[in-house]
Amino acid sequence: MVTQPLRIAVLGSTGSIGQQTLDVIRQLPERFQVVALAAGTRTHELAKQVAEFRPRYAVAERRTAELDDALTANGTRWCDMDEMAVAPDVDLLLVGTAGAAGLTPTIRALELGRPVAIANKEVLVMAGHLVRRALVAGGGSLRPVDSEHSAIWQCLWGEESHEIRRIILTASGGAFRDYDESQLDTVTPEQALNHPTWKMGAKITVDSASLMNKGMETIEAMWLFDVPMEKVDVVLHRESIVHSLVEFSDGSIKAQLGVPDMRLPIQCALAYPERMPLPPAPPLDLAAVGSLHFGRPDISRFPCLRLAMESGAEGGTYPAVMAAADEVAVARFLAGEIRFTAIPAIIEQTLDRHESTADPDLEAVLAADAWARRVATSIPAGAA
Amino acid sequence: MVTQPLRIAVLGSTGSIGQQTLDVIRQLPERFQVVALAAGTRTHELAKQVAEFRPRYAVAERRTAELDDALTANGTRWCDMDEMAVAPDVDLLLVGTAGAAGLTPTIRALELGRPVAIANKEVLVMAGHLVRRALVAGGGSLRPVDSEHSAIWQCLWGEESHEIRRIILTASGGAFRDYDESQLDTVTPEQALNHPTWKMGAKITVDSASLMNKGMETIEAMWLFDVPMEKVDVVLHRESIVHSLVEFSDGSIKAQLGVPDMRLPIQCALAYPERMPLPPAPPLDLAAVGSLHFGRPDISRFPCLRLAMESGAEGGTYPAVMAAADEVAVARFLAGEIRFTAIPAIIEQTLDRHESTADPDLEAVLAADAWARRVATSIPAGAA
Q: Is A78 helix (H, G, I), strand (E, B) or coil?
């Protein structure tokens, strides 16, 4: 059987997820083809990617002479992300952008009945209800790229979602998992950026240290797997080998395991419903690993997890406000302006002042986001 | 939707698996119904089961007045296991018998296109190729009941069997997992019968201590999941929480976990493709468990594992000879006649003397079994 390669639009192609996606595609050229690349400010990297993959479409936040040359040399057309999402020669959209930029392309592709491989947290945290609605309306599908959500997704293949009793996200615990409250009070940005397992950007690494990243993942899980927050649980697992678990109605638990390597969940999302015969990561040798540890997250030390789960359960514009306040608070922490323990304090104060809108449309979500950024910025360091 | 209860024939109803099967059925009377019960020598227990479940058919190795009364009082017909397997009012056959007795009912039900929930090791070890052939010919299906094979089966739901890279059976390691070779030389039957996790019969508990039980499970896995022995692996896991794992072509690993309780895999096998909304066992609290350990089995201390895997890979009548020699050797050990370390020696000597038949029919399998019993019995204790 000769299969045409799957034509993929990679949004956020110069970021960590985007680059690893291109790495997966590079290994399987007979199965996957890059037809569109969207980057932010890294135009030099994008020009190189255009030269290598010769996509039909490319876009970045600005044009440069180098990029223009690459576009011309490879017959690549300048085209924005929303257009890529609906272009007739795109089979799958991979959303590896950070922030709200991935939102409308995601919704447009889903409304058109397309599969969207999603690595973008904010899209689901801010507007999961809108994404879900587009998916149901258009018959598209979401394929998670995050290692945790990919694990859950894989555990659900061949299962019925109404038989989910509990989704159990594993958390490495971040850089400060063994710190007590007084130690947390004095940690530096440099310490926060030293994640024990995954190498990631600054914002997400701080979010890992505060467990806000895990909190956002609980909200993503709600929308990806259509379960209420009371069915979502978090367990600490420092080795990051068990990527997450699902407990079913009969008490049986399934888990997905592997060495921590983002290329595996990326490849899963691209190849579904098949599995490619090429492991993108070294195989896991469980006997060599020896032991796996599990524990309960300490919400008193890491209140961000509680704040995120409460926002997700409340719904409305609360999750968008929570995410925006976190982004501001993390930036203020990284700038040396506030202490690490002030991050949850700023988020909580912002949430406390917020009046949520029920079932907000995109405009209301973005308004809540902007409002939260103003409020979170205005809270004095001493008050947090 | 009103569903008719699934009509189940329970072969081996007074044994451990049979009793736990009845326990599962008892909890879900609107879904499952006992229509046939087959026991061995425990006629008193069978009479009580007949009175409780009022099956259409029952059988035991002998009739007693008490049993006859129960049959008459409940309108139950005396009927052998082969007849039960093909009775028109049986939807599913559960084979919980030990030894070769389950073989022909299994084959008959499969030839008729029926699902067979199988807990019987010997059937697959001795004649897996015949069972597989009946399954393919009749369009029936095998649903494993063993916790390890149920785990693998559950991990394969929604997956393609050609994408299996490796089946990883977990082994608790048995009663002597921490003993060195000289300690193994002097263990008593009493020590061998003290299994760390599962409460089972004497033969299977000794087989657990020698790792022969795990070896037989590797052969079962070959036939249940249609994979060659080189794709089957064993990892030590003393907690018996991870019941087994599957590694797929892309390197992703799935595992099934739960507290050790046979009622969960039994319920899975009966309920498939659904999961019942009633956990038969207490839920697993991974954070409370705390840690899970994995290691490599030591084949030099536990040669039975190697003997079984080699027999399985060779095929023919070797697995039947291996299983029969083991049964004799274990009985001789339990009778105080030979040392624990003589068990693999007797099996190996019996295998060495055997000339295997390729693709043996049932008669050839049973002849090899009888031959192996004679040889294994004749090997002097001093020579083993």
A: strand
Mean pLDDT for chain A overall: 95
Cross-chain residue pair B245–A235, CB shorter than 8 Å = no
Contacts of B211 (CB under 8 A, 6+ apart): B171, B173, B174, B234, B297, B302, B304, B305
Which residue out of B253, B261, B268, B285 would a mutagenesis test of the A interface target, given it has the greatest number of A Cβ atoms within 10 Å? B253
Query: What distance in Å separates the CA atoms of residue A162 and residue A139, rounded to the nearest whole number?
Result: 19
- Angle subtended by helix axes A263-271 and A147-156, to nearest 10: 40
Average pLDDT over residues B284-303: 96
Residue B294 to residue A286, Cβ atoms within 8 A: yes
Confidence class of residue B239 from pLDDT cuts 50, 70 and 90? very high
Residue A1 has pLDDT above 60, yes or no: no
A6-144 and A175-259+288-383, same CATH topology: no
- Cross-strand partners of B170: B235
Classify each residue of B11-50 as buried b or exposed e, where b means 16 or more C-beta atoms within 10 Å of its C-beta. Answer: bbbbbbbbbbbbebbeebeebbbbbbbbbbebbebbbebb
First to last CA, chain B: 62
Most A CBs within 10 Å: which of B275, B293, B298, as the mutation test of the A interface?
B275
pLDDT on residue B5? 97
Range B175-259+288-383 has CATH code 1.10.1740.10:
yes
- Contact list in A for residue B287 (CB cut-off 8 A) is 235-236, 294-296
Condensed to tens digits (0 to 9), the pLDDT of residues B325-378 reads: 999 999 999 999 999 999 999 999 999 999 998 999 999 999 999 999 999 999
CA distance B147 to B127: 21
Question: How far apart are the CA of A245 and the nearest CA of chain B, in angstroms?
Answer: 9
Query: Residue B297: closest CA among chain A residues belongs to which residue?
Result: A287
The structural domains of chain A, with segments of one domain joined by +, span: 6-144, 175-259+288-383
Q: What is the pLDDT of residue B1?
A: 55
Contact: B251, A281; criterion CB under 8 Å = yes
Q: What is the pLDDT of residues B99-134, one digit of tens each?
A: 888 999 999 999 999 999 999 999 999 999 999 999
If one looks up domain B6-144 in CATH, what number appears?
3.40.50.720
What's the pLDDT score for residue A382? 83
H/E segment holding residue B289 = helix B286-289
